[in-house]
Design goal:
Chain lengths: 244, 507
């Protein structure tokens, strides 16, 4: 299948390795990956922080850039959630019925990576090898907004060599929440503290998830504590093979 | 046992519904987050109630259909609210009751106090009613020389402590039993009291029984009121509400106008949704229904007054996205699952409506433009746990985001130079322009990598400046790497194609 990669500005700038891994997994499975270079940001940070008028040009831009493709895949649950669940709100706010029609049509073609692999293409074994003890944190937007369900776990269970351990209270938010982590830093850190405790209780060496934003939060806390536990995006685990 | 009139140990701070500037959520949360006793009490209570709710809901094979029915019933009622309210008024009058309309809190309080005074009442007994907390009825009555006694055990506890409720259903959730024991010994003059819950309940019972028997006027809220029959309903656990609504000869019910439901049969849905969502019970212990006044039958109050209060609700109704907040049946399931509420407690919200529902309801009821209530829509990580459990499917995250937009637009449009020069606003405007232009965006990526060097020399960012310092207080940050993804993509495909979109024939 021909797939347009929606890298997200966050991964593009801060986590290029996740983008490279996403390309690798998709190509290994025989998909043709294209990268529309006009893409920038979906507008989630602006929209969710309340700067919604400022987000509308970004919504229009996204529709223009990705509209022509049959399938758009992103290694981020929350950015896909923005496009699928919140773009209609933005279009309503802009009082633009044509835009509303366009975003509703586009929303059906935009997928988070695990959702694309498991639900859209029916693949669970991507040929990965990852000999580490790993725990999986289901991020809130992938879990409750996109309802990816077991898709990421189905993929992880088929990874060879992996020692997958269940995270206690996994469904509880890590406390990131975008600008919430800065605006309500105290509450955010209080939430993070409990998440870190649960991660450490698993004795995993790696905590993975489908969103680098949440992982940056969890990983930032682990690193500050010198916990010796790393965060790695799901795409990077799926991209790992015995050769590399 | 000596009964003494309580002297609150401290004055409750102003909340969003009282006069004066209330603190912001961030300010108040800082304080409550460092209260280890509160964290322990709340964590334990919310986790227990959450687990039990999960079990009670899992028993229902048609739970999702019930939620959808609840949502649809509320949506229809709100769409025709004017008709249902008039129908309710007619039904109550037909059953011998009197109906009053209150535009706002002040008017509602005046009506209630007027009724109490017309009967020469110096004391009134109350069943837990958030609507009367919203109007600050107790303070108003005190000013009129009337003492109001809360009879719900938890409400009594916080009234004696001079505090405000921190939970919709369990107002004293922030207190544990040893704290309650000390409070009762001090305020009720009870000697030799254990911290056993039955002993504590008994101490309250002895105190309250006398009030029930002597009070001329009872005051209640309402969970529902049926338009077709005029029947008002209160759902509770203790039976004190039943006493309040049956013993005093005069009963006054204050309810928000959104509490009306069209028909008796609608209870089928709500009576399944409410107890399981709130107390994780299949059925709550006491459900009281009354229709009008006793009209000489000797059964129930001789005089019944229903006060229908707006107090900002029609403004909420006018907002297409915000109006779903009026679906709320005050079950408090959203509080119990909220990771923010679990850690900060209800007082951090500075509102009689705390938690996720409070974060959307309060700013809408009091209006945008005050720092305290304006901070509430931001008191959420948008994790969506509240929406998942809401029995009437209020999309709380969606309303939170919608209200954040209103807060920002209000600042930008109504604010002065200070608001426009606010660093957040300036940064967001700048980033909006950068993201709208690929060249500017790519330039900013380079600039971020180059500009971060003073912070990222050790390979990790330990400290950020300004408002961003909130991040690095407890979290390290990974520096921006030299090669962005798009740079890598270009190297991989041997440079951009003539149209500037490598490997991309579609645009």
């Amino acid at each position: 299948m021909r797939v347009a990669l929606f890298i997200t500005c966050f991964n593009d700038t801060l986590f290029p390795e996740t983008g490279r891994a996403t390309v690798e997994v998709l190509e290994r499975l025989g998909h043709e990956v294209v990268f529309p270079e006009e893409q920038t940001c979906c507008g989630q940070m602006h929209f969710n922080t309340g700067y919604q008028r400022e987000a509308i040009p970004l919504v229009r831009r996204f529709v223009e850039v990705f509209g022509p493709y049959d399938a758009v895949v992103a290694p981020s649950g929350s950015c896909v959630g923005m496009v699928r669940e919140l773009y209609p709100l933005a279009a309503n706010l802009a009082n633009d019925n044509e835009l509303l029609y366009e975003v509703e049509e586009l929303g059906e073609k935009v997928f988070e990576l695990s959702e694309f692999l498991v639900k859209k293409t029916g693949v669970t074994d991507v040929g990965a090898y990852y000999p580490h003890r790993v725990t999986y944190h289901p991020t809130c937007h992938s879990l409750r907004m996109l309802k990816v369900g077991e898709a990421p776990l189905k993929l992880l269970r088929r990874v060879r060599g992996i020692d997958l351990v269940e995270l206690p209270e996994a469904k509880e938010c890590c406390g990131f929440g975008g600008t919430f982590a800065v605006k309500n830093a105290d509450t955010s850190v209080a939430m993070l503290g409990d998440k870190l405790r649960h991660v450490l209780d698993t004795e995993a060496e790696i905590c993975t998830a489908g969103d680098n934003s949440c992982l940056m939060h969890i990983g930032g806390g682990l690193k500050r504590q010198r916990a010796g536990v790393r965060t790695v995006h799901l795409a990077e685990i799926l991209a790992s093979t015995e050769e590399r | 046992m000596t009964i003494i009139r309580h002297q609150p140990e401290k004055k409750a701070p102003p909340d969003a519904f009282s006069e004066g500037r209330t603190p912001t959520f961030e300010e108040s949360a800082k304080e409550s987050l460092s209260n280890s006793q509160l964290r322990r009490n709340l964590g334990k209570a919310t986790q227990t109630i959450r687990r039990k709710r999960g079990v009670a809901v899992a028993e229902m094979p048609d739970w999702e259909e019930l939620r959808e029915a609840g949502r649809a019933l509320k949506a229809r009622t709100l769409r025709h609210l004017d008709d249902y309210l008039v129908e309710l008024e007619e039904s109550v009058k037909r059953a011998g009751g009197q109906v009053h309309w209150a535009r706002d809190a002040e008017e509602a309080n005046r009506i209630v106090a007027g009724i109490a005074k017309s009967h020469g009442a110096r004391e009134v007994v109350k069943v837990k009613s958030i609507a009367t907390d919203e109007t600050k009825l107790n303070e108003y009555l005190e000013g009129e020389g009337i003492a109001a006694y809360e009879t719900d055990l938890a409400e009594l506890i916080i009234q004696l402590a001079g505090e405000t409720s921190s939970h919709i259903l369990v107002p004293a959730i922030h207190k544990n039993r040893s704290e309650i024991r000390e409070l009762f010994m001090r305020e009720l003059g009870v000697e030799d009291l254990s911290d056993d819950p039955p002993d504590l309940a008994n101490a309250a019972r002895l105190y309250l029984r006398k009030k029930f028997l002597s009070a001329k006027v009872g005051i209640s809220g309402a969970n529902f009121a049926v338009a077709e029959t005029g029947t008002v309903c209160v759902v509770e656990s203790e039976g004190n509400g039943r006493m309040c609504t049956t013993l005093p000869p005069v009963l006054v019910t204050l309810m928000g106008i959104e509490k009306v439901i069209p028909q008796w049969r609608d209870y089928e849905v709500f009576m399944q949704l409410l107890p399981r969502s709130s107390t994780a019970e299949r059925m709550n212990p006491y459900t009281s229904f009354w229709t009008g006044a006793s009209q000489g039958s000797g059964d129930g109050p001789e005089e019944f007054h229903l006060v229908l209060m707006d107090n900002g609700r029609t403004d909420v109704l006018a907002d297409e996205i915000g109006r779903q907040s009026l679906n709320c049946i005050r079950c408090s399931a959203c509080l119990n699952v909220c990771p923010v509420y679990e850690r900060t407690g209800g007082h951090a919200y500075n509102s009689v409506y705390p938690g996720p529902i409070g974060a959307i309801l309060t700013p809408q009821l009091v209006g945008i433009g005050e720092p305290g209530p304006d901070s509430l829509p931001y008191a959420s990580s948008l994790c969506g746990a509240c929406y998942e459990v809401c029995p009437v499917k209020i999309n709380i995250p969606q309303v939170l985001i919608h209200l954040r937009g209103k807060v920002v637009r209000h600042k930008q449009d109504e604010g002065g130079l200070r608001e426009r020069l606010d660093p957040e606003n300036v940064a967001m405007q700048a980033m909006g322009r950068i993201f709208a232009n690929r060249r500017l965006y790519e330039g900013a990526q380079k600039a971020a990598h180059v500009g971060q060097w003073p912070l990222a020399r050790s390979g990790t960012i330990h400290r950020l400046p300004g408002k961003l310092a909130g991040w690095t207080e407890a979290r390290d940050l990974k520096p921006v790497p030299e090669q962005t993804f798009r740079d890598w993509w270009k190297t991989r495909r041997g440079g951009p194609s003539p149209n500037g979109s490598t490997g991309d024939g579609a645009s």
